[in-house]
Fold these 2 entries.
Entry 1:
Amino acid sequence: MITRGHTSVMANRRDEESSKGLFCTPPWATRALIEEIIKRFYGDVSGQTVWEPACGKGHMSVPLAEHFARVFSTDLVDYGFGDGVLDFTFADAEDAPWPVDWVIFNPPFPLAEAFARTALTIARVGVAALVRLAWQEGEERYRLIWRENTPTYFCPFAERVPIIEGVWDPEAGTATAYAWAVWRIGQTPEFPPLVHISPGQARRRSKLSDLALATPGEAKRRRLAREQKAETGPDLFGGGDG
């Protein structure tokens, strides 16, 4: 098992249903990247390799394996899926078992820039990061990404990509907008084109087999719990057992 980086936070959390920093990507969102963007602008990738460095429980690695010859899956925490535990912000090409053509990931939001910059030193063909639309903003991000490491394509979803903590629930909703930032290695455009991923991807790219990765009803359960808490209101007397 790979154990580079901050070993003190690499405890096995396999039994946890939800963990801070684990946000599972709907499988159809990864297929949309490949079918709508990568195949369109880069061509066939069936003979290429990919590293998924924030693999979580496999929600992105599984659809990547449908298209790439080999998938290397790692994460900072062991969620019971993947090839090893690794802090990607400290990674290099030698950590992979073979040369890596692509690095594709949904990074922890505070580490998105660090993940992208590391990935650009490893990938031979391209890098793709699923990021919040707000990733276009911020002075430091502008300097580190948009000026110094400009994406070749920035591809927002026209429909919302529902991502909640700890699980993937096909019934979930979200107010957060997401986009794929995509880099072609060796090509730095002055202005990255905006490429919309058209509506209907959830319907077109979902598979019945994806349900093995799903936790249906969780979003509804959480919503009802929030509503019940709101109706009950705060305990003005502080509660307690005494």
Note: The chain is about 25% helix and 15% strand.
Entry 2:
Amino acid sequence: MSSASQAPSSGAPTSPAPDRRRQRLASYTIRNMVYSTLIVLALVLVWWSLTYNPTEPQPRRVEVTTTASYAAEQAAWPVWVPEVGEGWTPTVAWFEPLEQLPTWHVSYVTPEGEYLAIHQASDASPDWEDSVLSGAEPVGEQVLPGPVGEQAWQAWEADSGNAENAWVLGPEVTGGATVVVHGTAGQAEAEELLRAVRAQE
């Protein structure tokens, strides 16, 4: 009896290695895309933060109290210091010569976004008034409030500049200094500012 030789089965199971390799490559590709996107976004944010420039520049807020105290120590007359509430942003405060006259100056951006300032000096000369009033012309009188009560102020107007609306009060009622309130703001905001003024000595 002849024994028939049986050939061993050579069919090996199909290896899943190529599928696993493809899955691994696909996951690497997706992860790399996510990382790349995050890096690009981070770079864009850094660039934007360095180059951001708002269309409307924000006014620079200054400290008024310290300068006002110094002015009150130096001046021979009561210094008018506004104690305004929120919405008023102080932008400039100084006590220094203007046209050779020691001058107190404080200015604000008003709640309506306008400019309003106080200039104050004794023995106001024509040059000093010209410098402060910037070409404005007198137009009459208006009664305005203030730390010395309601007074008749001389009203001035200009076509443009920082004295479109201006009001001047003489030294005879202020304790020795000419006071000029001026800016682009109207009378209502000028009155609001003056109601908040305290005479500091």
Note: Strands lie at 79-82, 89-98, 101-109, 115-121, 137-144, 151-157, 165-169, 178-183, 197-200.
